[in-house]
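Weekly structure sync - notes
Attendees: PM, LS, DV (DV joined late)
Agenda: review two folding runs queued last week.

Item 1: First target. Sequence and structure tokens pasted below for the record.
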Amino acid sequence: MRSRADAHRKQASGATRRILQRMIVLGIDPGLANTGYGVVARDGAHLAALDGGVIETRAGVPQERRLADIHAAIDALLAEHEPDVVALEELYFGQNVRTAFAVGHARGAVMLAAGQRGVPCASYTPQKVKSAVCGNGRAPKEQVARMVQALLALPQTPASDHASDALAVAICHVNGAPLSGSVARALQTAEAVLVR
């Protein structure tokens, strides 16, 4: 029986070499009030946005209820799109520690939903995402939105910064996944040789 991952791979010229052809990534820009999401598919060199938007929770609602709502919405996205991986923006401790903790709770709700479905998670700093999408780790949000629009051939920039950031996180993972996979395999091989 072939695994789902095998179904996304195509045999290359070598007996053991494989090229990843199709990948679906659910990108997340976590937040308690607004969790941005973006689903990006890569088929060969072609990128396409399958979905994107914002999961909103209301202030004044108990935090546990808001987190449950985020979890339920992410679970529904995982069921609908069956991504290969969930890519999240890493927690950034800026000036407001209280906000950072709320973002951390939202990340936890997302990761729990992914873990319950056996979907791996990857995290990227905001600077890494901006560098991957714009070539500049300090790019402003407007530039990120324009690059997301261009890379995904969208008719206009995403309506929300949160959705735009989530799509950027997904693009960051999709473009870096082949390299990071090769590096991980090389490290595993080197470790196995050292253990012998």
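Item 2: Second target, run right after the first with the same settings.
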Amino acid sequence: MNDDTMEKIVSLCKRRGFVFQASEIYGGVSGFWDYGPLGVELANKIKATWWKAMVTANDNIFGVDGAIIQNPKLWEASGHIAGFTDPLVDCKNCHARHRADHLADTDSTNLEELKDLLKDTACPTCGKKELTEPRTYNMMMKTWVGPIEDDSSVAYLRPETAGSIFTNYKNVQETMRAKLPFGVAQIGKAFRNEISPRDFIFRVRELEQMEMQYFIHPSTQTEVYERWREFAWDFLTTQLGIDEKNLQWHEHDENERAHYAAAAHDIYFKYPQGFKELWGTHNRTDYDLSNHQRVSGKDLQYFDDETHKRFVPYVVESSVGLGRLLLATIINAYHEEEINGEKRVVLKLQFELAPYRFAVSPLLKNKPELVEKARDVYRSLKKKHGNVMWDDNGNIGKRYRRQDEIGTPECIVIDFQTLDDNTVTIRDRDTTEQHRVKIENLV
């Protein structure tokens, strides 16, 4: 992958309506992005595909949609208020702030280790070797609930979606009459006050997560953990069509994983900046429910009808960020090719993910008979598929290139032969081959 791939991806996303800088007309705001018309379509299709595979296809996984603001005690119990931190360094010369672990190119958050690694490191902004010693920085975004801004009204925008899954564990179990093992899934926004957002939508301050927490008996943790690792890999390669050569496993060592985790594996994707974290599978043990039971005073144990024993379930987590997944999907699909001596950019997205399934065009937009016939075909396909684009701007070659760039699988052209025999030309995005099909067979 070329060094300028990310620049090309960012340009494509802006030019074709996938992703825009938030508040762009005011100069933007770091770490926040807006999805445009095509970005929304792609994101919604990815979410729908994940939800179908994760929730709809399983009898024992249930969905919730928790509030973004929860009781602050939830984040006290989860450890976020005390420990949701990143290592930070400042430049004494230019006052720029940087993630210490990123500058040191390590996954470690040990302050003494980072201090040693960064002792001769220059500030990336100004080039001066005047960095402060690393210190911790809490990434929780604080707000207030109610008319008075004091300590009694402090609240936080959630840093992850899992919190409301754990606090609703009993509610889901009782209302759905769920027996172990069962899972609770959620898609929703989370907020992290990142020190240095970067790499387009890879590291942001407002993100959307797709998470599932699977509640199990501790004795089954090994087999369940491997099952959800396999699910993540299969989903990426089969459902999203991501090439296996762009994926690799990364196992967290003892110093890297959370103190409560018995095991942690991430799938890394080959982004332009290198292999980076995409999808996490973690064995969270009974840490979450035990802490919420302790802080809330509520009994969160599970009663086993067969053994007549009570215990706090273990949890295996499957978690992926939508933004990173969307970016990986676009990068994987992005190709630069030469067709008949002409260069083109094409997004070879899975048919089910393409923002538009078809693009319908009259050969000439100044011929009313062609336009009328093309509109009939367009309306019929729109009624059946929904995501169909009308495109009569420019010549046919330019339309094809435009549709290639946004990943439209098939272009349908209505020409003068259509008026004679009711056939249309279909042009395939990936092969550029064309053939004729009867309209009734098409619709």
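Discussion on item 2: Residues 5-73+144-331 form a domain with the BirA Bifunctional Protein; domain 2 fold (CATH 3.30.930.10).
Action: LS to circulate a short write-up before next sync.
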